[in-house]
Amino acid sequence: MIVSMNFKRSLSSIMAMGVLAAPISAEENAIFAIEGDPDYGEYLSSECLTCHTGETDNYAIPPIKDLPTEAFILALVDYRSKLRENPAMQMIASRLGDQEIAALAAYFTAQQTE
Ligand code: HEC
């Protein structure tokens, strides 16, 4: 049961658009409720930008600034809890607390172009 739920979650995170159809945990709701500090997010973002350069022809590393806020947060929570399997992102997310995730989401999603 838990395994199939996890599968559903990671699949919908990957698709990003379907993310709100997946069950949202209390942990995730707590992060949604935090008003992230974009300045702190900018400070934290330098590490992210070494990989997430925004080059859209790099299919191995997805661009992250155009993700919806919820999808951005859910992706990081899913790497942190190892629901999503990417060793680099799992390691990076394991060092992020809820405040850091909220701050990064605030910073990156503030740069969105229409
Ligand atoms: C070592 C390179 C590297 C660094 C540094 C890195 N990422 Fe990633 N990131 C990746 C790769 C590779 C993926 C795709 C992994 C996968 O297939 O699930 C990814 C995926 C993601 C996703 C999911 C994107 C999607 O469309 O589902 C988010 C969000 C993300 N990273 C945020 C961050 C943030 C925030 C930071 C900085 C705290 C960061 N990353 C640092 C390599 C990196």
From TrEMBL:
Transmembrane intervals: none
GO molecular function, one term: metal ion binding
Signal peptide coordinates: 1-21
Gene3D superfamilies per the UniProt record, alphabetical: Cytochrome c-like domain (1.10.760.10)
Keyword Cytoplasm among UniProt keywords: no
Keyword Metal-binding included in the entry's annotation: yes
Superkingdom per UniProt: Bacteria
Xref: SUPFAM superfamilies: Cytochrome c
Keywords: Heme, Iron, Metal-binding, Signal
Cytochrome c domain ranges (all copies): 36-112
Cross-referenced PROSITE patterns: CYTC (PS51007)
UniProt-recorded name of the protein: Cytochrome c553
Higher taxonomy: Bacteria, Pseudomonadati, Pseudomonadota, Alphaproteobacteria, Rhodobacterales
